[in-house]
């Protein structure tokens, strides 16, 4: 089983991850991890925090000479901005009154978290609920991608839409990596330009934007997941992973919600046999049938809501006195859809690596690859 545990606050000393379950002798490329962290910080519409931080991973344990040992891999991503926040965040003592937040933001964890954990300062909630936490999930996800890549399984994606401006074209898996060199990770040049203009307009108005991301998994053999234990259904596991990401409010597989509007004859992928192998001419199921991978490309989409920190603020309540007010404005992005795409690739990789590991087992990479090669 492969499991990532994370710790850390947005303006704390660092973000920390412990990844358990990787087999020994898995090559670790630190430069590739840093490359994924850089992509997470990229994209049109990002805010000032990205100018302060230059994220780099530091491996603390579990790797020697660029190979995993089979023990838990511990790593961290340090927060450069901590030096500016040390007086207000230090564990050994801090002046918390200087950064107290009580004008809670609609759509954020502020108010609900304060009530749940008994805090009078929303900063004790928002520091952990912040999407800054995803930096360490991207680092862990890069390790999970490396594990899957050894089996010939690749993960990529692109931005389908931003605030209603949608790319309606089909793009092959090989085309997806080209999105990473574009300002908004959109593959339709016209739509991307329209979306960038809209982001500029929203920024001027103090508003924010969300969007839809598509993630694809290529090369996974059939039979991963289960129709016997519903908690192990592959679509449930992967969609659950995507919904665990901050700001994700919807997830779908294949045709997704569009299935509800079509007759069955237009939805279900007919099965054929070619050269002794089962095949399908369509992939409306998104590569998952009955909770199991069917050997086709896995197609996932996730909907990201607009960022809840608006510079113009929304109507809310000040929990310090119960009075009506405008929500606090923390430093924020206008659009973070590119970061969201990288994070979604990462959490899908982590969830899928766990599913693959549960089926294959294996203490070292050679065992894992041999077992995978024996699957039909």
Q: Keywords, please?
A:
376 residues; globular; four-stranded antiparallel β-sheet; 17 strands; five-stranded antiparallel β-sheet; 11 helices; single chain; alpha+beta
Main sheet makeup: 5 strands, antiparallel
Order of helices and strands: EEHHEEEEHHHHEEHHEHEEEEEEEEHH
Helix-strand makeup class: alpha+beta
Strand order of the largest sheet: 8-7-9-15-10
The low-pLDDT segments are: none
The Rg value, from CA coordinates, equals: 22 Å
Per DSSP, the total helix count is: 11
Query: Per the principal axes of the C-alpha atoms, what is the gross shape?
Result: globular
Helical proportion? 25-40%
Mean pLDDT: 95
Number of strands: 17
Q: How many angstroms separate the termini?
A: 22 Å
Task: Determine the strand fraction and express it as a percent band.
Answer: 15-25%
Task: Report on this structure.
The chain contains eleven helices and 17 strands. It has 376 residues and is of the alpha+beta class. The strands form six sheets. The chain has a five-stranded antiparallel beta sheet with strand order 8-7-9-15-10. Strand 11 and strand 12 form a beta hairpin. Helix 1 crosses helix 6, helix 4 crosses helix 5 and helix 6 crosses helix 10. The longest helix is centred in the C-terminal third of the chain and has 24 residues. It starts with a strand and ends with a helix.
Briefly say what this structure is.
The protein is α+β, with helices and mostly antiparallel strands and 376 residues long. The chain is built from 11 helices and 17 strands.
């Amino acid at each position: 089983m492969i499991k990532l545990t994370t710790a850390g606050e947005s303006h704390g000393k660092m973000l920390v991850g412990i990844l358990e379950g990787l087999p020994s002798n898995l090559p670790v490329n630190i430069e590739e991890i840093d490359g994924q962290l850089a992509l997470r910080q990229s994209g049109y519409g990002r805010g000032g925090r990205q100018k302060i931080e230059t994220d780099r991973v530091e491996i603390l344990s579990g790797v020697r000479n660029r190979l995993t040992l089979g023990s838990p891999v511990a790593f961290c991503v340090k927060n450069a901005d901590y030096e500016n926040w040390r007086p207000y965040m230090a564990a050994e003592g801090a002046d918390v009154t200087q950064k107290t937040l009580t004008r809670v933001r609609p759509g954020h964890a502020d108010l609900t978290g304060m009530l749940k954990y008994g805090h009078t300062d929303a900063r004790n909630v928002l520091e952990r609920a912040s999407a800054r936490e995803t930096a360490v999930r991207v680092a862990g996800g890069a390790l999970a991608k490396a594990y899957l890549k050894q089996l010939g399984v690749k993960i990529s994606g692109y931005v389908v839409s931003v605030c209603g401006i949608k790319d309606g074209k089909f793009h092959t898996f090989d085309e997806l990596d080209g999105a990473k060199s574009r300002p908004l990770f959109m593959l339709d040049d016209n739509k991307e330009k329209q979306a960038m203009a809209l982001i500029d307009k929203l920024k001027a108005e103090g508003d924010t934007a969300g969007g839809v991301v598509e993630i694809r998994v290529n090369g996974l053999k059939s039979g991963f997941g289960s129709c016997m234990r519903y908690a192990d259904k592959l679509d449930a596991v992967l969609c659950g992973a995507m919904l665990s990401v901050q700001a994700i409010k919807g997830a779908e597989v294949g045709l997704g919600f569009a299935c509800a509007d079509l007759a069955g004859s237009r939805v279900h992928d007919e099965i054929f046999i070619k050269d002794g192998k089962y095949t399908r001419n369509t992939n409306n199921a998104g590569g998952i049938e009955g909770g199991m991978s069917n050997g086709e490309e896995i197609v996932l989409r996730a909907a990201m809501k607009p960022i809840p920190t608006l510079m113009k603020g929304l109507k809310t309540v000040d929990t310090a006195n119960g009075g009506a007010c405008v929500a606090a404005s923390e430093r924020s992005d206008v659009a973070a859809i590119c970061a969201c795409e990288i994070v979604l690739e990462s959490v899908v990789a982590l969830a899928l690596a766990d599913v693959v590991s549960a089926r294959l087992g294996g203490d070292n990479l050679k065992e894992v690859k041999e077992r995978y090669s024996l699957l039909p």
